[in-house]
Amino acid sequence: MLRDFCGLYNAGLQQRIEAYRRRRISLGYAHQANELKACRAADPDGLGRWSFTALQQVLRRLSQAYAAFFKRGRGFPRFRATARYHAATFRFGDGLTIKKDRRLGIVGVPGAIKAVWHRDIPEDAKLATAIVTRQQGKWYAVFSVEAAFAETCGTGTVGIDLGLNSLIATSDGATISAPRYARRAQSARRRRQRALARCRIGSKRRLRAKARLTAASAKIARQRRDHLHKLARALVSRYQGIAFEDLNLAGLKRGMLARSIHDAAWALLVQFTTYKAASASAEVKLVDPRGTSQTCPACGTIKAKTLRERLHRCTCGCTLDRDVSAAQIVHQRAFGSGRDIGLQDISQRVAA
Ligand SMILES: [Zn+2]
């Protein structure tokens, strides 16, 4: 199907180019779509098999590529290689349907297609389009849904610290560690990396090893995103105000080696939480991260810690997990707590 769609895309592009070259005519979407019926009739074993509206979408996509070229200064539309043509757009209920047993029906594809559902479609939802894509040998269907999402957030506020011992720590005293499968997946990936390194350059074995490595890396990325989505969801449904350290502050030097490993995950978590909070009318605040791990949340005393110290132990009697104590400082900076920590002093005296 994608091969035929790609062929149509290229033919459409060819037609537009020729029409302009020979007769100085600019063909538009409407003109090309008008010819579609005849094209399908002439090619019953090819284009004729597929959904009419899905083929219209292919021409529309070409039209969009032209519009981007003229209006937004993008490059001139290019001919596409079949191997790199990965997506088809359907109008829901027309080219693509959901069967009673939750399998997918696609016009031209025999039988019903088994699907793993990421989540249920809300009952009152209006389904508009569905995009079927091919990614690393797996097929996905993405639905755009029009519905009144009554997302609700929780109550209370929380400060979150990017943990050193754990993935994150909350000011409520909870620590959430990185999922265990992440470490397993990492070691599998390293093994595949070594296997790749052993293969002779240009050999078939090397190609296969490379494909396996790519698949393993993609899996890790998927798992990480999934986990962070769920974590962000959990935060929003539990709290109304959520504070993170703002790690994008210009000129900030992050001394901690361990942090850089988590940075990518951290940025994603902040991003996911921010947009989920926005749709549930919760609030996300970003605070100055300097000195969060060096300040006592109970008395405000500043005391430098080495990376090895896992506990925050203050002379005032406050003993906490170091990440939890940092999360409490983040919470105080974002939402206040009656005590003034004196951020100005911290940033002058302590390098984070
Ligand atoms: Zn103290």
TrEMBL record:
Residue intervals of the Cas12f1-like TNB domain: 266-328
Q: Return the Pfam families for the record.
A: Cas12f1-like_TNB, OrfB_IS605
In this chain the Probable transposase IS891/IS1136/IS1341 domain maps to 153-254
InterPro entries reported in the protein's UniProt record: Cas12f1-like_TNB, RNA-guided_DNA_endo/Transpos, Transposase
Q: What's an example GO BP annotation here?
A: transposition
Keywords from UniProt, A to Z, are: DNA recombination, DNA-binding, Transposition
Q: Which GO terms describe its molecular function?
A: DNA binding
User: Do you know which NCBIfam families this protein is assigned to?
Assistant: guided_TnpB, IS200/IS605 family accessory protein TnpB-like domain
Task: Give the protein family.
Answer: In the C-terminal section; belongs to the transposase 35 family.
Which PANTHER family does the UniProt record give?
RNA-GUIDED DNA ENDONUCLEASE RV2885C-RELATED, TRANSPOSASE
Protein name in UniProt: IS200/IS605 family transposase ISMex45
| Species of the source | Methylobacterium gregans
